[in-house]
Amino acid sequence: MISDRGTGRRIIRTVLPAEAGTVAALHARARATYYPDGLPEDGIDWTAAWRGAVGRPDGQVLCAVRDGRIVAVASYRTPDGAPAETIKLFQFHVDPAHWGAGIGTALHAACVEQWQGDRRATAVLDVHAGNHRARAFYAARGWTPDPDHPAAPDDHHLALRLPVRHIRP
After folding, report:
1. What is the mean pLDDT of the chain?
2. I need a surface site. Which of 41, 78, 134, 135 has the fewest CB within 10 A?
3. What are phi and psi of 94, to 5 degrees?
4. pTM to 2 decimals?
5. Cα–Cα distance for residue pair 135/129, rounded to 1 Å
């Protein structure tokens, strides 16, 4: 657990299975910001998906809690078929009501710290091409386009990578 310096009002911890519905609602609020016509119907039961992510023995789901409420979430694990030193950030969301408060930065730093402790060399992620705010956030933290996975012209996602061993959290 990491507390906010001096105040103790913000902590970063593992998400509990019972919090999957709360995390799914936060996920929907964050995703809605980069779909100008509203969230597409994807047929996914996101509460069940988050419950599954929390329960995976090969993954980790962290959250940032502020004043007793989950305000950000990050889910990561080794992707299927990838080398053990690679970690994939599958989901990273900050509640839009808390943008600009440093919560995403603190959660990202906690992820990087964990990856370094786990001796990961590289982190990868896919970001929605139209999510310019997220793309700028990742770029400011050293994420760059993944040369091994260039986007196809009709792809809605960009693959990014981060050299974990060479940065400070």
Report:
1. 88
2. 41
3. -115, 135
4. 0.88
5. 8
